[in-house]
Amino acid sequence: MELTKKISNHNFKAFLWHATFLAFAKNFMDVDTIIPSMVAAAGGGAVHIGILTAIMMGGSKFTQIFYAPYISSKSYKKKYLLIGITTRVFALYGLGLLLYLLQGKQQTYALGLIFFFIATFSLAGAFANISYVDILGKSITQNKRKTFFSTNQIISGLIVLGSAFLVKHLLAWKEYPENYAFMFFIGATLLFIATIGFWNIKEVISSSLKIGGLKAFFKVMETEFKQNKKLGYFLGFINTQGIATSFLPFIVLYAKETFHTDSADVGTYLIYKVTGIVLMSIFVLLGAKKIKYNLLLYSNVMLSLGMVIFTYVITDAHSIKYIFVLGGIVFSLFNISMNGLLLEISRNENRALYTGFTGAGNILPAIFPLIGGVLISQFGYPIFFGFFMVIILLSAFFIFKINCEK
Asked: Are 207 and 349 in contact (CB under 8 A)?
């Protein structure tokens, strides 16, 4: 069965349903603010946050390189998408139950289980993402894709902005761990509702590509590198610019250690981060047909450097929130441009495979938070900031080589 305009519109709405309720859930499990602040409240330091950020940001995506050979060989991938998203729901419920039952006791034991549930949540997300990208690419017509990404960001941003105030009140309502327990219960319930959108997707185009195991996967990957020069530069870009998404969790810790911020402040940071996401998403949506990817990519580099420069000059807790505005803009830009580029350099028959390839583009983002945690604990924040800026500057080279004019 071919993809018709009617089916494309149906799937567009199904994906937006998921995006809408995922937006409600995002604040209650935000990886830049809520989760690192919870780890800090549980007694974790820079190294703990570094490990957890590595799992959530880079490590989970790196595992896509192992999931891809299996999932790419399946003609239809909706079942695997649902398995991944359901696992995430149960992981969040488990984390909420853990925090509620422990009530702050047995701190070391609690940290270990927190890591387990967060790792399960993140790895299941990576598993689901391969199917998600494949189904999205072949279930919505090409001329609607960039509109979908920017509309998705706006819907997410507006809803998250509204619910961020609820999160802020929940954080201040109870002390750790009760406040975080309720947060994860709510997040899991909203994520469950979001899965209804995936159940309604009409996956009409089967995938013809078959990969016979991990060895064959790497052989195909080698062939694609030779035939598609932009693939290597794309992986170089997400390996370098991708570390920008790991910056804000360390700023949460920096604010707590330097200015003695509390849970209510974290809620404020979340609001400002979402404001940045909304502003950038509206800008991209309004210029979706005119804005070239090159502009988005280079802008992301400059703004990422701006986050560090601004961190150097602030002198009070009040100004920290503006770093999260920049962080939201960088996050939005990176996701829109990365997903858009992936669809541009791939085809329907190899899109799940290319999503798996992006795992190789997350080697540096996976280890950067680990290195960052060690640098901060051993040498302090200035060395960490300098290391971050050097890697971000390297991404400009790969953007130049990609030269995506679409």
From this structure: yes
